[in-house]
Amino acid sequence: MREFVKKWRNEEQGLTLVELIAAMTLLSIAAGIIFSVVTFGMNTYNRVETENALRDDADLLMSSIITELYSYGPELISKNANGITLVRDAGTREERQIIIRNNQLHIGDRTVDTRSVVDMPSETNPTSEASSIELRCKTNVTECSSGLIEIRLVLEQNHNGRNQQLTLESKFGF
Fold it and tell me: How many domains does the chain contain in total?
């Protein structure tokens, strides 16, 4: 190799067209491979980052519902159009709703905020992919003191023009 470089330097003839084309071809192939690997890596990173943000938001919403359920301590839970109503009856009837309205989760008077821009489809767009909070009682009554709460959250986030969706389904008894 050293001899080739010394000979090439001493002769000062330059490169032939074939050598130049071969070098440019190898360089363009290497640059194309590097570019595609970097682009694929960035797309994967963005997708994983969005999925993690959606999972964090889903965990925040679910923990807010469960915390409210156990801290409020309802005697009865009833169904309503967009969610459930927690009922406490200690002389006077107190009610607190957990509903999905305007693409947000509302617990009583407060709205649960998520850290990212998340769209939560509501029941106004009746599809099987809509978010919902359902109450299942042992009998077909609208209020019960024990039963099963089924929560389905469909979260969407738009990142670089691509919508990513996460569906979380959870069931727990009370």
Answer: 1
